[in-house]
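Sorry to interrupt, but I need a hand with the structure work. Leave the record below and I will have a look:
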Amino acid sequence: MSQFSYEKRPWTFYALGAFFALFVLFLYGPMIAIYILSFQGPYGGLTFPMNDVSLHWFAALFGQDRTGDFAGALMRSIILALIVFVLTVVFSLMAGLAFRQRFKGSTFIFYMAVASLIMPGLFLSLGTGLLFRVLNIPTNWYSSALGAQLTWTLPFGLLIMFAVFSRFNRDLEEAGRDLGGSRQQILWHILLPILLPGLIAVALFGFTLSYDEFPRTLLTVGPSNTLPLEIWAMTTTVTSPALYALGTLTTVISFIAIIISLGSIAIIQRRRAGHRRGQRKSANRKP
């Protein structure tokens, strides 16, 4: 019998397993409680025990008795997150291509980009809001809030692209040049298909970080709230499980974005694996 059999596992194995289980419960327990309480009945409260089970508070978010501009805030957050992820993917790809070679000021630009990750988000929000005020430009979710959120998403996208390019085999580009491919053809037919999983990861970071960003949006959003700010406003006025229902819906949207991204990466990898198997079979058939 193997020395790693079930009977011979030391007590530390079970102790570490119990510690990890408690950590997971501490991490996800509050969220699970919120998800459960969001299905309270019409006369339910904010705490246990539950008073019946229904979808009443989800309907209240969109009904005539809704407690805030949930639909508008949700739409603004999704549109803003889509714009942020598109810009993050484009700029991160351009920066990744640029940083493949040393150029004057590259180190300074890199550290300036990463510095925005270290600076508190509220300070960046305050600085962006003051800049727009000095320039006499009104703050809004599609302008000043967009710029403030890009200071958060672009450094993550840049770091991801650095990791992707560090594993990229440049011999593939050389093979494309030997076959007479132009720079545009190499970019579209060699670079982008290989970098696509990394670009999807950048898009996922851009969307999720923007979708639930609070401090960088607080002082730059203008008169119309995004969803995180709407939830924060609801915590001061709403005393019903509608707040929990809103949290459950936002979590579902986040998980949908994650599933779509990871599913896209899995499909790409499966197609590449099938293509490689097809090439090996074709090579084996040759005399």
